[in-house]
Amino acid sequence: MSGQSTFDDNKAKEEKKEKPTTSVPPIPEKPLPGDCCGSGCVRCVWDVYYEELEEYQRLYSDTHPKSS
User: Fold this and answer.
1) What residue stretch is flagged as signal peptide (predicted)?
2) Which domain does 52 fall in, by range?
């Protein structure tokens, strides 16, 4: 392996360390009409969906700040 190749490899590793990436998960999938049984479950599919949606929106806003 040449000295230049080692230098380039080390430089690439340093750049990755300097730029932490925050990935945004895919948008939560909305439950289908038949997914909720309508019996008032403590942890309803809609509760889970809205919690995941809030987390998605928080992560998205952290990685995509609004421009003024």
Assistant:
1) none
2) 23-68
Eight-state DSSP code of residue 66? P
Q: pLDDT confidence of 60, banded at 50, 70, 90?
A: confident
> Mind listing the pLDDT tens digit for each residue in 13-35?
665 555 556 677 789 999 999 99
Q: Which pLDDT value is given to residue 55?
A: 93
DSSP per-residue letters across 1-65: --HHHHHHHHHHHHHHHHS---PPPPPPPPPPGGG--SS--TT-HHHHHHHHHHHHHHHHHHHSP
| Residue at 53 is within a domain | yes
